[in-house]
Each structure stands twice: as structure tokens, then as C-alpha cells.
Structures
1.
Amino acid sequence: MVSDYTPGDWVLGQWQNGRWWFPGVVHSIGEDGSVAIQYDDGTTEIRPANQVKRYDWQVGSRIDAIWSGDGQWYAAEIVEADPDGARLKVRFDDGIEEETVTGRCRSE
């Protein structure tokens, strides 16, 4: 089966078939088209191709991020992104801004 992805592609994977999409890099492609992902937070998982999409976060994207103040997830918007996209500045819905990394973020 031909895949839309190649090792090294930055993608969003639907973690454990749940509602959340997490960023990661394609590690390998299975013969059935499944995608092995090394997530930016260090975890790994194999997802069917229909639960993987191209990384599309940019300034203005709505995401959830872990706030350093208490380690919990909160709704936020990306307000700045490094050219490589791995470091972000987010504004939480309560107005607090914080720098973070993609491994501490997710989207629906």
C-alpha cells in the first residue's frame, strides 16, 4: 500500500484513537500503510493512515497547551512560532502568554 507520508515528515497523529491530535515525526510506514510516529513528547505509536494528517499548526491556530503553573491542559492560541515550528509562544484564554514546545501541545 502506498502512503502519503515518508519517514521524517512532521505530522499530527490521533493519539490512541481519541479526540486529541499530537505532533510528531513519521518514523516508518508499515506494509498496510500504517504510520509509526515518534511524538514530540517522546512517546511512540503506530496509527492507521486515516488517523494521521500533515502538521498544520501556525500562528493563529487554536490548541491546548500545558501551562507551566500547574501542569494542566488549557485552551490557547499560537501567537508566535520559531521558523522550524518546534518552539511556540501561546496565549491562554485567560490572557497569560508563555513559551512552550510542541511536545506540550495538542489539538482537536
Note: Residues 10-54 form a domain with the SH3 type barrels. fold (CATH 2.30.30.140).
2.
Amino acid sequence: MNLLAALRYLVALDEHRHFGRAAQACHITQPALSNALRALEEEFGTVIVQRGRSFEGLTHEGEAVLATARRMLRDNEVLRQELRGTEAAPQGRLRMAAVPTAMPLLARFAATLQARHPGIVPVMLSMSSPELEKGLDDLSLDLALGYSERMQAQRVGLRAWPQCSERYYLLQRARRPAPERLAIGLPVGWAEAARRPLVLLTPDMHNRAIIDSALREAGLPVAPAIETNAVLPLVLSVLAGDVCSVLPGAMVAAVRSERTLEALPLVEPDVRTPIGFMTQRGPRVSRALQAALALLDTEEWKSQLATHCGDLPE
């Protein structure tokens, strides 16, 4: 039995919660995945997977094997990167994730990192704040971009690299298209935003909790016209219909080529939300992660932050 392969299949099963999808993600057949997991159970002399007509979760012993599997696979990746690359020319995968509204910033960071170090393969994932916290805890993520104050309050042992403070904008169809790109209009109060038909993220998203809190402070709780758990529909709905949306500066910067839109800075209250990259303090750092953390301290990246996050130039 290939122990590392079997442990990788176990991790995939936990991530996908389905035998068929896990097998597909591992590029093997479902019987091959099931056989490997049964061999793993024989190796450890205990039941790992709860089986019924479908996947029903892991046993208590299985959870312990899963935690060890994640550590072993991460250590294996760190070792591979040390053997195959150098500090100057790192090679290997780097698993990163961001809250949905910070994905434009993560995409820019990944592209900048890959251009600087072509041997690194960034893997970008969109996750909720609880998923980011879990990913850092179980070592399935190398680097997370999210609400740093929330995550550091929820988890001890995180190391943070502050990036910017999100400012929020009301995105709407422009009455007159701008000559070249999306225009930044005059500030508008949150109370005024609450009176508009809004498309917002679903209540399970931390971004929605921030918006709801600002609207309550303005004295007008919101009743959204549309809800979604993805960020692209926020913009597409504004483009297609008569709804507006509330977006942070990084998201607005990503659609500045849309000259049929305009963004109005939201005030009263003036909401600023810290966003930062985070890692676990304990585990050994891979060469790819070392390169990513080094990039965060460069003037090249800091200048991109100033342009694409927080306050937008009018």
C-alpha cells in the first residue's frame, strides 16, 4: 500500500464528503479509492470511515488519522520544495484562500507572486471566515486573507500581516455612463443605501454581518432584494437590473472598467474593516510560503495595495 497516496485519498474524502467526488478529485476510480481506504483501516487496525449507502463521516479514530494525514502531507510538500527548489528559485504549490470580497486582492497577489517566482503554483480558494479558520487550523491552507480582527479573536497562534482597511461603497447603475471608466461619486449615508433595493451576500457571510451592523447603526435594518453566497452575482445583478450593492474598495477597483457603473462612498457611520494575510505560527514554513511572505514586505506589493484596496481615487 502507498501510505501517502491513501492518506491523500482520506483528506480528499473529508474535503468533498462524497466517495465519487473525492475519487474524481484524486483522478482515480471510486473502487480504487475505497480499496485504498480499507487498506488504510487494515494497516491501523481500526475503522476510519463510517459507511452507509453514502459517506457518513469519519469515526473518532478516523479524525485522529485525518489530523496526522494532513501533517504528513504538509511535511512531505515542505520537504519536496526544499529538495527541488532553492530560496532564490522556489518550486511547489501554495494553497491560499480569501473571504469572497477579498478575492480580487488575492488574485492580484497570486499573479504578482507567480510572475516573480514562476516555479510556484498558487492555488486560490474562496472561503467564508469560519472555513479560513478551519483551514489554518488543520494545515490545509498555507495562507489566508480575511478579517484579521475577527480571526485573531477566534484563534490564538495566528501571525498576521495587515494589508488595508476596507472602506465600503454603494455600487449602482450610472445615470450617465462615464467617458472612460466607473466614476466615484459623492458620499452617501448608509441610511440612504438601506432605502435602495440591494443585492447582498447571504447572512452566513461575515461581510454581511458588517453591513447589517452599519445599517442598524444608521437606524434602518435592511431587507435585501437579492441574496447570494458569491461575489460575481453582486456586480452582475447591478449591471443587469435596478438593484444596487454594497462592496468594499478592492471589489470596486476590480470593476473600474465598467463605465456604466458608479460607486458612492458610504458614510454615517464611516466603516473601516481591517483585512490581512494570516498563517499559523507553529508549522515549518515551505519555500513557496517564504517567498509569499517576502513579497508582502516589498514596495512593489505595497504600491499595488495603495491602488487596489481601501480608499479609491476619484
Note: The mean pLDDT is 90.
3.
Amino acid sequence: MSGPVGPLSSPGFWLQRAAEAYLRELDARLRPLELTHTQFQLLASAGWLGREGVGPTQQQVAEFAGADRMMTSKVLGTLEARGLLVRTADPQDARLRRVTVTEPARALLRDATRIARAVDVALVGGGTELRDRLAAIAEGPSG
């Protein structure tokens, strides 16, 4: 019995298609919160990185989220205009901008995180095997 051929035989093809489907679903479910998946990803990254009380730099947020720096700056500007974060100059280096998530954003992030977890479970289940495999792929080859 023969299996799929051409692109249909490629795990990479299906990984890309699955990622696109995941992002479409997440965007649809985040829409009532007036957030896109990119805004959620960057806001959640800033919140996570700043959980110890020191706001991360924009660069740190971009790197953690795996996002382009210029795009990150623009999206953070949009979130700042909505009052969801504040960007301030770093006291030691005025060229750096520190990102602080506001209290209204923390409440929004709780709701958005519940939605993202529900999408995770709905689309890929609650197990850790796939998550661990995807993390290994994202971190790149070892050694």
C-alpha cells in the first residue's frame, strides 16, 4: 500500500499547515478580546519576562517571542496606545526601552491565556509529547 507522495509526504508541509490552522483558530478566539495572536504573543512574552518585577527590554521580548525587532516595536506601540503596556528608557542605557505590562493587561492576559490553552487542547490534545518534540525542533539541532 502506497502512502502520500510529493509535498503530502513531507512532515514539514503538514507542520506549516498545522501552524497556520492553529494561528487562524487562535486569532478567531482572541478577536473578542481585541487581540491578534501576534499581540498576545508579544504581550504574554513581556509579562512572562517581567514576572520578577524588572521589565524586559524590547529586544528581549522580540527574542523570546521569536519575532522581528521592527515588527515588535510597532506592535508594542499599538499595545502601549491601548494602555496595555508602558515603554520607558532603561536607567543605565537610554537607548534601551523597558517594557512594563499594566494591570489591565494582566487581566486581559489571564483571559487570553485561557483561550490559548483551550486552543492547544482542542487542536493537539493535552499531552506533552508533541509539545516536547516541537520545542526540540524550535531549539534547533544539538551538538
Note: The helical segments are 11-30, 37-49, 58-65, 69-81, 103-124, 129-139.
